[in-house]
């Protein structure tokens, strides 16, 4: 709310009914005709007298009295619109209920202090590891823990996971192939995901702890020695990927932000906006919010905040505010709010509330507009200032974007702490707003890193010599189209809107990390790479803007598959700066280009 928050209204109980940012200094000593709900009165409420002091707060100059006739303010003697006042009250608080009013009044009299948001804010930034008991996944968990990063793992078998990863691991039990097991509360606080889950392929007769038979299978390229164990490639690589993306999308965020208001694709998301003007303190300013079906910058729909602002009766602001959202918006995976609007050269405010109470702190950010130009206004969450009764609240908790319950746009004469809006002019105004959405600040880094496989585009690639390809390419059909569904799973990530990186290792080994590497794109290279190295690459990709929305293959350079790679444990190689490799990656190269190319006409 604005400086009217400490208004002393005509009837002291009207101030309590409105719950306007703080309790009134006036108290109803008894439930008389002059102190009940205004809609219960047979005559208009008493005449108010207002005066604005240098602190932008109002005080009552004289005792009120009851009389019949129009409600006037001393300054300007202009009539006050009681009907609009009650309409505003009704819109935001619902139909009048005398019983609820008396309950509310007793509560206000016994607890006059304004409500405040919670004083604590939990930390987030958890990295979720999926497939954490696999060869790559457990190494990812180990590296993250050594780096001191918060880790949560998703596993199907609790006993196996705790035995492998430790009894104190932050563990959620679920199965990506079963959507019903991926409960929303499991993913609160998760900001990044490394998905190392994969369909299980192994020798038909089992394997040794060192996976010696697994290597023999892939070297022999014999389908008679290998099989899918457990769920099918379609269920794990495609259905499971779809379920996982849907489960984490709200937590990790979207590259282009989450739309709160405005047009997106073929739809338009509206909110329940209502006018909240200085009529609530005796003023006469008036505003409205409508959808102009052709008011957008490209002729599409846009919201239009417009009205007439006046300082008569010590007023001076107009605003539109949403009703409280039925379900609070958790925007904690983003860095701020972005408004797309056509400016008029004036300064406005966006007020965000995290409490359903009317009488509470509003987190506020002012922004200037350029006259006649469509522009994007980005307001970082860190710029929102806690304001109460037009004064900043120095001891308020930081803005917590996990529970947004309402939005408010305001044009006002008043800033904060006694300051005035330098762009304020009385009279008509209008502000077209085409969208309000969240944003992720630059540089954007991947929020979802997926471990796929080299070769996913090769089974259907024309003109490819299959005799020179890895076993998985040769055995794709016999292994229930394992690579085909891996590629379909990759496509789901690319289409999800989540900032991503897709890592395609060549044949995985149990060898240590540290060998020289080759990064490539287009799905052409063959060779081997250690699981330890892939784990490190995945974690590095989470922090690198160069890896954003890239798909790439990686292999150890030069070393033949049959030649083991070892390191000197007393003098291990230094950990790599993977940005050196990420910097050379290009957008849009997946290897699918070769599948989509048409023959060149002769």
UniProtKB/TrEMBL annotation:
Pfam families: CIA30, NAD_binding_10
Domain NADH:ubiquinone oxidoreductase intermediate-associated protein residue range list: 272-433
Domain named NAD(P)-binding: residues: 131-204, 446-545
Protein name, as recorded: NAD(P)-binding Rossmann-fold superfamily protein
Organism: Populus tomentosa (Chinese white poplar)
